[in-house]
Design goal:
Structural class: alpha/beta
Radius of gyration: 23 Å
Strand order of the largest sheet: 1-2-3-4
CATH class: Alpha Beta
Oligomer: single chain
CATH superfamily: Brix domain
Number of domains: 1
Number of strands: 7
CATH topology: Rossmann fold
Length: 234
């Protein structure tokens, strides 16, 4: 029998689970696929983009030569997939298409140059530590930062492009957002190529961490320490 005066407390986890399930259902989901023959490095880039869009994309999506875009569109409607990124390779260069399911719009961009995640980690000072960025910090979606799109008019094609990009990532909820879960950032920067003067969009993925700024070194060491200091002599 339970002890007198003791009460059993029941934690209401089903409320949080229901809110989390609703958030997952409303979040935009995507397919990252290739069409046609692509090289080894472009296939690795597809894997990197899938890691970037995780957890709202399929990391191990299997493709077949028999599959057409109509097949992916049909499956996307059943699974609630709202966007697709399609990468192709031709003699003229590499291209990426952003598709909004099921009726568009579709935006096609030429990939001027790209760098794989393994190359970035290789040139870091602590490569072993930074290599964990792509495995341990992918549980939460990235924060979206857009720069250079603010002055675009409604009829400007870059305005449509910015709306497309924003719709691909879940919106930030300031009231319920946990800062400790913010481990990475995706940046879309509209700028001009210094060599040609043409408009280019930089698409970058960063791992971030929170640190104290403008704090004394001794205070910072005290804050970050897990042991409670002995101040009985002071």
């Amino acid at each position: 029998m339970p002890k007198s005066g003791s009460r059993r407390k029941k934690t209401r986890t089903h409320v949080d689970d229901a809110a989390q399930d609703e958030e997952l259902q409303q979040a935009p989901k995507s397919f990252i696929i290739k069409r046609g023959q692509v090289g080894q490095y472009l296939r690795e880039l597809i894997v990197n983009i899938r890691e970037l869009m995780y957890p709202f994309t399929a990391l191990k999506l299997r493709e077949s030569k028999r599959n057409s875009l109509k097949d992916f569109l049909g499956v996307a409607g059943q699974l609630g997939v709202t966007h697709m990124m399609v990468l192709t390779q031709t003699e003229a260069g590499n291209y990426i298409r952003f598709v909004k399911n099921p009726r568009g719009p579709t935006i096609t961009m030429k990939i001027q140059e790209y760098c794989l995640s393994k190359d970035v980690v290789r040139y870091q000072q602590d490569a072993r530590k930074n290599s964990k960025i792509f495995t341990k910090t992918l549980q939460a979606p990235p924060l979206l930062i857009m720069n250079g799109f603010g002055g675009c008019a409604d009829s400007d094609p870059y305005k449509i492009c910015s709306l497309m990009i924003q719709s691909m990532f879940p919106p930030i909820k300031v009231q319920s957002m946990n800062l400790t879960a913010c481990k990475r950032v995706v940046l879309f920067n509209l700028t001009k190529d210094p060599k040609t003067g043409e408009d280019v969009i930089e698409f970058r993925h960063f791992g971030i961490s929170a640190r104290q700024r403008s704090v004394n070194r001794g205070i910072k060491k005290l804050i970050n320490s897990k042991r409670v200091p002995d101040i009985s002599k002071f």
